[in-house]
Amino acid sequence: VRLRVNGVEHNIDVPPMSRLLDVLREELGLTGTKEGCGEGECGACSVLIDGELVNACLVPVLQADGASITTIEGISHPVQQAFLEHGGAQCGICTPGMILAAVTLLKQHPKPTLEQVREGLAGNLCRCTGYMRIFESVLEA
Amino acid sequence: VESACLGLKQILLSSGLLAEPYTSDEFTHAAAAYVSQHGSLKAFSEYQPPPGIFWNDETYQGDAYGAFAWAVYVVVVTVDPATCEVQLDDFVALQEAGKIIHPVLAAGQIEGGVAQAIGYTLYENVAWRNGRMANAQMTNYIMPTSVDLPPIRVFFEENPYAYGPSGAKGIGELPMDGVAPAILNAIEHATGVAFNRIPLLPETIAEMLEQTACA
Questions:
Q1: B61-62 and B55-56 as β-strands: parallel, antiparallel, unpaired?
Q2: Cβ–Cβ of A127/B143 closer than 8 Å?
Q3: pLDDT in tens, B34-58
Q4: Which candidate from A41, A42, A129 shows the least CB-CB separation from B111?
Q5: Is the distance from CB of A129 to CB of B112 less than 8 angstroms?
Q6: Cis peptide leading into B199, omega within 30 of 0?
Q7: Among A9, B118, B145, B207, which is 20 to 30 Å from B172 by CA?
Q8: Mutation test of the interface with chain A: which of B100, B145, B173, choosing the one with the most A Cβ atoms within 10 A?
Q9: Cβ atoms of residues B138 and A41 within 8 Å
Q10: Chain B contacts of A37, Cβ < 8 Å?
Q11: pLDDT interval class at B69 (50, 70, 90)
Q12: How far apart are CA B186 and CA B181, in angstroms?
């Protein structure tokens, strides 16, 4: 398959039903994308495919052939600094996915309300922060 | 840890590689120089209990802890009389944990504990079947998402503990203990029925309310 990941072209020889998540982590060494539940419920493996926020654990790599993919390694956004300052990251497993969801949300709503933040991050589970600091980080970004 | 770090500093000072006052860069260079000369830089320290606290490692008896953290948890709930769904409208944690060293991280630990305890109280039902968890998936083991939680507002009452590092006490466990009783008490206040088990799912509330109504 042919993938453009964070602006770099790759031609990768992998079984077509490999999960995009595994191709990113194991073939390309981009381990910033995390595996949480592996069944599309937790959002830890969130990446952007042609700008759309998706769970990389649910995407067979052949479906991403020719697509442009952005992982956490390809993100540089003020919300990352806000996460650092407001305690938005604790254990870190949900953080890459949360950042991608937050960047997507802030693209749609540059000045989101708290309700929009809650709604926009509802596909990303966090077990250890209680979400409050994540909301604060996104609102302050 | 504090005492072991002071031990490291003492070793570097007496070796002549470091002199006070020093910058963090000078400390790093002195430590690297010491390691290249001696192979390693080590200091050992063992926990010393505060005066009057005795613990017997052989019999496992005595006082394991010199001090405990304290907290008050207050919650406002709405119980839907038709669906018996419990919605949390507001949550306040007043927390004492000695001197608070890092307020942002400390509040984050309390908020995270409270969020987990809210799940433990209202949603997270482990269904056992033949000794195995039958709902070991995020689709059917329900934990709170970003839309399920009330505002969790944390306040600290600082009371430095004389024998803690910089006056601190442990902070992690308490929010897992007090939250379920607070929520169950609030549900009792709202419904007039006392509940004594968790997770308290809507179907349990419905059953109990029906029984009470019939009685």
A1: antiparallel
A2: yes
A3: 999 999 999 999 888 888 899 998 9
A4: A129
A5: yes
A6: yes
A7: B145
A8: B145
A9: yes
A10: 137-138
A11: very high
A12: 8
- Contact flag A90-B107 (C-beta cutoff 8 Å): no
| Residue B107 C-alpha, separation from nearest chain A C-alpha, in angstroms | 9
CB contact under 8 A, A129 and B114: no
How confident is the model over A23-80, as pLDDT tens digits? 999 999 999 999 999 999 999 999 999 999 999 999 999 999 999 999 999 999 999 9
Q: Which of B139, B146, B149 to mutate to test the interface with A (most CBs of A within 10 A)?
A: B146
Residues of chain B in contact with residue A126, where contact means CB-CB under 8 angstroms, are 146
**DSSP codes, A6-32:** TTEEEE----TTSBHHHIIIIIS--TT
pLDDT digits (tens, 9 = 90+) for B160-173: 999 888 899 988 78
Distances (CA, A) of A73 to A78, A96, A97, B131: 14, 9, 11, 42
Residue B213 has pLDDT above 90, yes or no: no
B81 — contact with chain A (CB < 8 Å)? no
As a dihedral over the C-alpha atoms of residue A81, residue A47, residue B108, residue A107, rounded to 10 degrees, the angle is 60
CB of A112 closer than 8 Å to CB of A92: no
Place of tokens 């394991």: B64
Q: Which residues contact B19 (CB under 8 A, 6 or more apart)?
A: B13
Does the N-terminal peptide bond of residue B21 adopt cis geometry, omega within 30 degrees of 0? yes
Spatial contact of A104 and A48, defined as CB atoms under 8 Å apart:
yes
Instruction: Give the residue from chain A lying closest to B137, CA to CA.
Output: A37
Q: Is B149 in the A-facing interface, judged by CB distances under 8 Å? A: yes
